[in-house]
Amino acid sequence: MSEPIVPAHAVRTANRAYPADPAAPVAPVAPTAPVDADRPADPYAGPYAGQYEDGNALAGALGEIFAVDTTTAAGRCTGCGSAWPLARLHVYAHAPGFVGRCPDCEQVILRLVRSPDTVWLDLRGTVSVAFPMNGG
Fold it and tell me: How far apart are CA 29 and CA 12, in angstroms?
C-alpha cells in the first residue's frame, strides 16, 4: 500500500503552520524558545555595538591578497542594494578576523580571517565588487 501524497500547502514549517485549505489565512506558530529578558532587543547590540572602524582598516589585510588598492573598489550590498567604496564599510576587528558591514543596512558584506599560511575571504554579502584599474 502506498503512502498518501501530502499537498505542499498542508506542510508545516518551523515558522508557520499552513492550513489544509490554501485560501485560509496563515497563522504564525508561537515560538518554542523562551524569550530572555536579559538579551538586548537589538541583535547587533553587545559589547562592541557602535565600535567599528571604516573600511580603510581592511587595506593592509586585503593588500596581501590583491595587487590593487581595494579601498577604492566599488561594492554593492545584497541586502539593500546600495553601492559604495569599500572604505565606507563598518569594519569590526574585535574577533579573530575582520567583519565588514554595509554602512546603510548593516548587512554582513565580507569576512576575512587569516592564519599563518591561509587567508579566507567571504564576500557573499556583495552582489559585485568593481576594482578600478590604473592605466587601463
Answer: 10
Question: Mind listing the pLDDT tens digit of every residue in the chain (136 residues)?
Answer: 555 554 544 444 444 444 455 555 555 555 554 555 555 455 555 555 568 887 878 887 888 888 888 888 999 999 999 999 999 999 998 778 999 999 999 999 999 998 889 999 999 999 988 988 875 4
Nine-digit cell at 5? 501524497
Three cell numbers at 90?
563598518
| DSSP secondary structure letter of residue 59 | H
Compute the C-alpha angle 78/44/128, nearest 5°. Answer: 15
Cβ 75 vs Cβ 102: under 8 Å: no
In a 3-state reduction of DSSP, which class is residue 107?
coil
Q: Is the pTM of this model over 0.85?
A: no
